[in-house]
């Protein structure tokens, strides 16, 4: 997850938000975002593979593609029934490498937002890791198609991607004659928050739902907050997302909006257009519930 200081605001460092970067050939790990498709020579029959999925989102998609796994993430979130009884390998940010190695995997699936920290770990363990790019719907669709090709699940992958494309087209027709609202997206953890750009996953959902992010022209996913600048942009809608401990983050946002006098000058606050996003639909990277998330976003942008 790439973060940049904005307009002189100091850079915010979070231990709960890992820093991601583009794939580095020197790590020996593979990024789905830069793979450019799967060569036929590398296509492998799924039955001969020992795949570990280390994130909930990747596990949802392997289930939809009808792939077996030898390892799954440890999570409080409900995982597909297909994987009941499968060995748990720890949380996505710090998988238990002793357990991972004991399962003798042919490939471990993670996401690009964790690549910076995890690629060296897997390389040192001599384990092949594939970091899936779920930072936007287009990137996620390509990652799904790549997995389908690699493991002989082209039909399932195409059906899944076609469904997402159909949802985007439905929404495009639904909103095409409506005025475009401006949107501020805040991403919080207990005690702090960042501003999400159009390059973040939630920023991409807002774009697809017809909204215009007040932060334009940035290459990073998140920026440090500068409330005075944000107020000058005066967005029509404010979306508040939580990463980890969502109930605590919602309380933090409520306290911030009451305590910091500047928020009352925002049109979105004055017009009751501030929305807290449910984490199960709006995580920091794409997941299986894209259709539901897009529908929910449209309702918030066009009440």
TrEMBL record:
Extent of the signal sequence: 1-20
Keyword terms of this UniProt record: Cell membrane, Heme, Iron, Lipoprotein, Membrane, Metal-binding, Palmitate, Signal, Transport
Keyword NADP recorded: no
Keyword Kinase assigned: no
One Pfam entry name: Peripla_BP_2
Cofactor dependence: heme b
InterPro entries per record: ABC_Transporter_SBP, ABC_transptr_haem-bd_IsdE, ABC_transptr_periplasmic_BD
Domain Fe/B12 periplasmic-binding: start-end pairs: 50-303
TM annotation in the entry: none
Top-level division of the source organism's lineage: Bacteria
Coiled-coil positions: none
UniProt-listed PANTHER family: HIGH-AFFINITY HEME UPTAKE SYSTEM PROTEIN ISDE (PTHR30535:SF36), VITAMIN B12-BINDING PROTEIN (PTHR30535)
Similarity comment: family membership: Belongs to the bacterial solute-binding protein 8 family.
Entry protein name: High-affinity heme uptake system protein IsdE
């Amino acid at each position: 997850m790439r973060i940049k200081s904005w307009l002189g605001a100091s850079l915010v460092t979070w231990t709960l938000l890992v820093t991601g970067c583009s794939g580095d050939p020197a790590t020996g790990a593979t990024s789905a975002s830069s793979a450019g498709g799967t060569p036929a020579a590398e296509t492998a029959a799924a039955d001969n593979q020992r795949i570990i999925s280390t994130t909930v989102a990747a596990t949802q998609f392997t289930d939809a593609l009808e792939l077996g796994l030898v390892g799954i993430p440890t999570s409080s979130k409900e995982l597909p029934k297909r994987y009941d009884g499968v060995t748990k390998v720890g949380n996505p940010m710090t998988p238990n490498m002793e357990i991972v190695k004991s399962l003798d995997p042919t490939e471990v699936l993670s996401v690009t937002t964790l690549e910076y920290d995890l690629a060296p770990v897997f390389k040192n363990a001599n384990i092949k890791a594939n970091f899936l790019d779920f930072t936007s719907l287009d990137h996620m669709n390509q990652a799904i198609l790549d997995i389908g090709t690699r493991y002989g699940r082209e039909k399932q992958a195409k059906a899944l991607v076609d469904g997402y494309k159909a949802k985007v087209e439905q929404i495009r027709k639904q909103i095409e004659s409506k005025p475009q609202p401006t949107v501020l997206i805040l991403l919080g953890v207990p005690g702090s928050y960042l501003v999400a750009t159009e390059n973040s996953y939630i920023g991409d959902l807002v774009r697809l739902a017809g909204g215009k992010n007040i932060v334009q022209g940035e290459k990073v996913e998140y920026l440090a907050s500068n409330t005075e600048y944000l107020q000058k942009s005066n967005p029509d809608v404010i979306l508040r997302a939580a990463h980890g401990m969502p109930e605590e983050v919602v309380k933090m946002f409520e306290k911030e909006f009451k305590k910091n006098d500047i928020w009352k000058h925002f049109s979105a606050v004055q017009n009751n257009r501030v929305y807290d996003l449910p984490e199960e639909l709006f995580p920091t990277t794409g997941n299986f519930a894209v259709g539901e998330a897009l529908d929910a976003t449209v309702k918030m942008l066009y009440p």
